[in-house]
């Protein structure tokens, strides 16, 4: 019970941390995208170019007052007021073409440029700006350009903000270019700033004391990557401290060992979950309290997104593996069975595909064109595909082995010139324990194309042998041997009577050839060898009883001292065959059915006196070398097998 309770506790911790992270993400998004309807301030009106421009001018006056109040009293309430007005400004600009990761920073830069432009130009009377009724005629383009500038307010034709009038998406690029032409014009401002683009990067949150910032050397207040150097130093030091803490956390988790696979996977998932939580918290602090800007802010946002996406992929991979390991814990799925290995392979495939989808979503958030990126990787992808072709072939071969199942874990099989027991089927190769106890590793792409004989799936085992009798054997002696051999195999309790085939098959170079083909009723290798040994010994007795003997490839030179064949036994054998013939009991081509039933299971096997006699030890026949790891029971005598036909 202890490993399971540990698993449940770790799972609960992971779920709680994930819920906290997603709540923080949602809350952060709400801060950026909240509108004025949730506040006592006037709502953002974008119903016409006039309404949009009026809202922009109103927010300009409000943010100047908010910044003046924040300068005098750096409280959390004043800082939140400034941040809220900034989010209201963002709602006036069409940022749909800007990558999601850099949308906040691009909006802040564009806002600063617009404030600098509007504060330096004389705007036309507000009554001359078109209202919503000016565009009732569908032939009139729904746009308005601020006189003397390339900046336009246009109506959004599609998307979630369809019908609203916003500063056009191209404002992001044309506004900075236009500002360079008019930057020499003085800025009209009630708070005495020279440029919004210089003033906004100097703002910081209340968590950083203003007195400490004022005491910094002037060199640290200079900008690098559009951000004051002191802010960059703070961001770098906080990131280094967070990385050290995460490394210590991961080391502490890795030092703990657990016998339970699910608990180990969930414990390792705590590291990426901690990375997500720390990166989110640190990113929010740097963005809000430190307030980095420009190029450095984009670097911070991109790095944060990449780290979070990689950590999410890590969590997804471990959680998928844990779920499938939990499924394998079912009593119906043995841990080393083929089904368990197939489930583990499926878990890795799902984890790989899911991780790829998460990575693709992250690439789109970064603003990289996924389709174009894939197209550009076409030639390189072809080269990589050719390089990893053997790996892909082995992976596909492993999948075929799982689906077609020519062998299972624990099966004894023959392949090529080797035999052995299958120990594992992996993604790349199959491991087989050979008879000499060496472990043979065969790539799946080769193994799946080999001719595989699976001994574990046989229902009976073939005894096939050809014996040669001396040429001096008389025909009736030969008939005696054939008849007695058939009687012996019909009587044997471990031989399938329906498959007995004993035939005189031809004249060899130095022998009369008799072929024995029968099936032993066993599925175990040791028992098969014992049954075959017993029947071959009985064959030897029958041949001797007939008065003939086994031939061998040699020439016999008869001298006077050679007594020849046993004449007495030869006469007795021929007399018995003659008696069969006279009484219509000649067992050719087969004995009578009544005789077969009479002979059924009349021999003792194992032979009387053997320590493995079933009558004295029922467990004596258990094999030490099973062909399959599965428990095989309930042997039944097959009826009318196909291979019983001559």
The name of the CATH topology of the largest domain is Alpha-Beta Plaits
Any idea of the CATH class of the largest domain? Alpha Beta
Task: Please mark out the parts with pLDDT under 50 across 5 or more consecutive residues, or reply none.
Answer: 1-10, 20-40, 631-646
Mean pLDDT: 80
Structural class: alpha+beta
Overall geometry comes to: rod-shaped
How many distinct helices? 20
End-to-end Cα distance, whole Å, is: 61 Å
The CATH architecture of the largest domain can be given as 2-Layer Sandwich
Instruction: Report Rg.
Output: 45 Å
Largest sheet: 5 strands, antiparallel
Q: What number of domains?
A: 4
DSSP E strands, number = 13
Beta fraction: 5-15%
> Level of helix content?
40-55%
Structural commentary:
By secondary structure, the chain is an alpha+beta fold. It folds into four domains: 2-13 and 231-369, no CATH class; 34-203, no CATH class; 391-456, SH3 type barrels (Roll); 459-552 and 566-644, Alpha-Beta Plaits. 51% of the residues lie in helices and 10% in strands. It is built from 20 helices and 13 strands. It has helices spanning 2-33, 49-72, 76-90, 103-118, 171-182, 196-199, 210-214, 218-221, 229-255, 261-290, 294-328, 338-365, 370-376, 378-387, 389-404, 444-447, 475-491, 525-546, 567-582, 593-599; strands spanning 143-145, 152-155, 165-167, 223-224, 227-228, 412-415, 418-425, 429-434, 439-443, 452-454, 461-469, 501-507, 512-520. It has a five-stranded antiparallel sheet with strand order 9-8-7-6-10. A three-stranded antiparallel sheet has the order 1-2-3, covered by helices on one side. A hairpin with a 2-residue loop joins strand 4 (223-224) and strand 5 (227-228). The longest helix has 35 residues, at 294-328. It starts with a helix and ends in a 47-residue tail after the last helix. Mean pLDDT is 80; it is low at 1-10, 20-40 and 631-646.
């Amino acid at each position: 019970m202890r490993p399971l309770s540990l698993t449940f506790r770790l799972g609960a911790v992971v779920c709680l941390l994930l819920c906290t992270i997603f709540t923080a993400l949602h809350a952060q998004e709400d801060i950026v995208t909240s509108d004025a309807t949730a506040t006592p301030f006037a709502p953002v009106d974008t119903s016409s170019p006039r309404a949009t421009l009026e809202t922009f001018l109103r927010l300009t006056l409000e943010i100047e007052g908010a910044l003046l109040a924040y300068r005098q009293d750096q409280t959390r309430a004043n800082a939140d007021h400034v941040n809220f007005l900034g989010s209201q400004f963002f709602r006036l600009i069409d940022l749909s073409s800007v990558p999601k990761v850099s949308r906040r920073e691009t909006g802040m830069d564009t806002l600063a440029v617009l404030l600098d432009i509007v504060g330096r130009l004389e705007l036309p009377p507000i009554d001359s700006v078109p209202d919503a009724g000016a565009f009732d005629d569908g032939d009139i383009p729904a746009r308005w350009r601020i006189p003397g500038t390339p900046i336009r307010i246009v109506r959004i034709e599609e998307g979630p903000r369809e019908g609203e009038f916003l500063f056009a998406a191209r404002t992001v690029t044309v506004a900075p270019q236009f500002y360079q032409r008019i930057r020499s014009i003085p800025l009209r401002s009630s708070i005495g700033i020279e440029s919004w683009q210089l003033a906004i990067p100097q703002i910081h949150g209340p968590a950083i004391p203003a007195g400490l910032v004022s005491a910094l050397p002037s060199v640290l207040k200079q900008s690098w990557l559009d951000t004051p150097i002191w802010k960059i130093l703070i961001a770098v030091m906080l990131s280094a401290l967070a990385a050290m803490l995460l490394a210590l956390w991961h080391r502490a988790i890795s030092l703990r060992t657990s016998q339970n696979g699910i608990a180990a996977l969930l414990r390792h998932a705590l590291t990426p979950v901690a990375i997500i939580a720390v990166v989110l918290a640190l990113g929010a602090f740097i963005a809000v309290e430190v307030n980095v800007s420009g190029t450095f802010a984009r670097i911070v946002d991109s790095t944060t997104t990449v780290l979070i996406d990689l950590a999410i992929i890590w969590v997804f991979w471990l959680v998928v593996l844990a779920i499938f390991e939990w499924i394998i814990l079912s009593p119906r799925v043995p841990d080393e069975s083929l089904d368990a290995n197939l489930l583990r392979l499926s878990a890795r495939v799902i984890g790989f595909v899911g991780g790829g989808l998460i990575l693709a979503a992250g690439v789109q958030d970064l603003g990289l064109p996924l389709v174009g990126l894939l197209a550009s990787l076409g030639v390189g992808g072809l080269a990589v595909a050719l390089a990893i072709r053997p790996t892909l072939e082995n992976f596909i071969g492993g999948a075929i082995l799982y689906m077609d199942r020519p062998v299972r874990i624990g099966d004894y099989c023959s392949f090529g010139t080797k035999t052995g027991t299958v120990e594992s089927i992996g993604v790349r190769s199959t491991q087989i324990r050979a008879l000499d106890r060496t472990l043979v590793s065969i790539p799946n792409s080769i193994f799946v194309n080999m001719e595989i004989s699976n001994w574990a799936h046989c229902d009976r085992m073939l005894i096939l042998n050809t014996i040669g009798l001396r040429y001096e054997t008389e025909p009736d002696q030969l008939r005696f041997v054939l008849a007695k051999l058939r009687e012996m195999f019909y009587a044997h309790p471990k031989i399938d009577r329906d498959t007995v085939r004993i035939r005189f098959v031809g004249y060899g170079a130095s022998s009369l050839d008799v072929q024995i083909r029968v099936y032993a009723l066993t599925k175990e290798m040791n028992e098969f060898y014992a049954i075959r040994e017993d029947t071959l010994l009985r064959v030897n007795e029958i041949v001797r009883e007939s008065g003939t003997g086994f031939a061998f490839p040699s020439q016999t030179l008869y001298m006077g001292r050679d007594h020849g064949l046993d004449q007495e036994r030869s006469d007795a054998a021929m007399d018995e065959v003659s008696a069969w013939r006279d009484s219509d009991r000649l067992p050719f081509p087969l004995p009578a059915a009544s005789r077969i039933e009479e002979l059924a299971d009349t021999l003792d096997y194992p032979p009387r006196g053997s320590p493995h006699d079933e009558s004295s030890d029922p467990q004596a026949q258990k094999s030490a070398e099973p062909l399959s790891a599965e428990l095989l029971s309930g042997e039944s005598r097959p009826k009318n097998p196909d291979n019983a036909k001559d």
